[in-house]
Amino acid sequence: MLQPQSTTDYSTDIAAALKTPGGHLSIGRGGFTLHYRDGAMLSGYGCEAIKIQCIAAGLPVIDSRCVACDVVVQLTLGGPLVAVGRKPEPAPWHDLSYAPLHAVAIRYAAAGAEVWNIPGVDTASVPAERRTGP
């Protein structure tokens, strides 16, 4: 007989991320990454369970699974990284520089990524041909 699968409790890791400037959850086609300290990350594939827990806890979440692959590549390789647990570099930010979470989230939201728990950042409406999801 099949047993119900249990959902992993990420509350300890989420609490650490909430205490860390720039701490957030990023979700892409390859799974999730919970950024909870400078250089410390937790990665996995059960995206929906951790996404629900992070949103409920108030942790910033950026889910780019619905954005076209080429756009995500451009954002990832041509844009700044989130300064997690470290001081952001001064603007203007470029590829591989460290920017505040808010600055990076704006770029993803403008491309149509789902953004949660980041004040002042809303998911933008993008043309259907640039999205991969519904």
Overview of this protein structure:
- The structure is a single chain.
- The chain is an alpha/beta fold and 134 residues long.
- The chain has four helices and seven strands.
- The strands form two sheets. Strands 3-2-1-4-7 form a five-stranded mixed beta sheet, with helices on both faces. It has a two-stranded parallel sheet with strand order 5-6.
Beta-strand share of residues: 15-25%
Q: Whole-number radius of gyration?
A: 15 Å
Average of the residue pLDDT scores: 89
Helix content, binned percent: 25-40%
Shape: globular
Distance between the termini: 35 Å
Kindly report the oligomeric state of this protein.
single chain
Number of helices: 4
Low-confidence spans: none
The structural class is alpha/beta
The largest sheet, given as strand count, sense and whether it forms a barrel, is:
5 strands, mixed
Annotate the secondary structure layout.
Layout: H1 11-19, E1 24-28, E2 31-37, E3 40-44, H2 47-57, E4 61-63, H3 69-78, E5 81-82, E6 98-99, H4 101-110, E7 114-116
Parallel strand pairs: 1-4, 5-6
Antiparallel strand pairs: 1-2, 2-3, 4-7
Which terms summarize this structure?
single chain, 134 residues, alpha/beta, two-stranded parallel sheet, 7 strands, 20% strand, globular
Give me a quick take on this structure.
With 134 residues, this protein is an alpha/beta fold.
